[in-house]
Amino acid sequence: MPAEPIDLFVEDLLKEANLSSLPEDFKDQYVEKVKEQLNRHLGLTIMENLDEEGLKEFSKLMTTGKTPDFNRMQVMFSHRIPDFEQKMQKAMVDFAKNFVSAVKK
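User: That's the sequence. What structure does it adopt?
Assistant: Structure tokens below.
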């Protein structure tokens, strides 16, 4: 099964922070925690950039009782947030810089 882009991103982060040689069991847990933090950071970036209508549409998608369709959400975010892809890339770069800086302290 091919790795997801976020998994590859986190793996690269660990390499950059010199953490790729952690014991496997600890590394697996650490990767999950970093992914959670990254997803939270991206979610906050999305919320900060959605207008009122976008927030209403997002709320509707999240309260259907079903797991939201990823592709549908991507389309909605791209439609509702100007320069969505660039903002997500910037958020990921900022997260990476902060993560590596904190680890190397």
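The mean pLDDT is 91.
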